[in-house]
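Deliverable D2.4 — example input (structure tokens):
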């Protein structure tokens, strides 16, 4: 699944450079929440395109993974 690959790359990028990854984490999170945009960061269009093609269960799992990343970086909703 392409969504998992993108999230794995995000996780690796955040592990190496947490400050730089904050904006990307927010853009992925915002792609999961079309009705809410946090901190004015636009949704990542590539991630959003792949996410829309997933089942609802897969979308929920992707959102949970991104929320864990947010928690690890201290990003609050």
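Example output (designed residues):
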């Amino acid at each position: 699944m392409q969504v998992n690959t993108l999230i794995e790359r995000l996780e690796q990028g955040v592990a190496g450079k947490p400050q730089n990854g904050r904006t990307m984490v927010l853009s992925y999170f915002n792609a999961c929440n079309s009705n809410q945009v946090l901190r004015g960061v636009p949704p990542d269009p590539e991630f959003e395109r792949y996410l829309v093609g997933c089942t609802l269960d897969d979308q929920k799992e992707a959102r949970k993974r991104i929320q864990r990343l947010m928690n690890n970086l201290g990003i609050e909703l």
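Helices lie at 2-16, 18-32, 45-52, 56-73.
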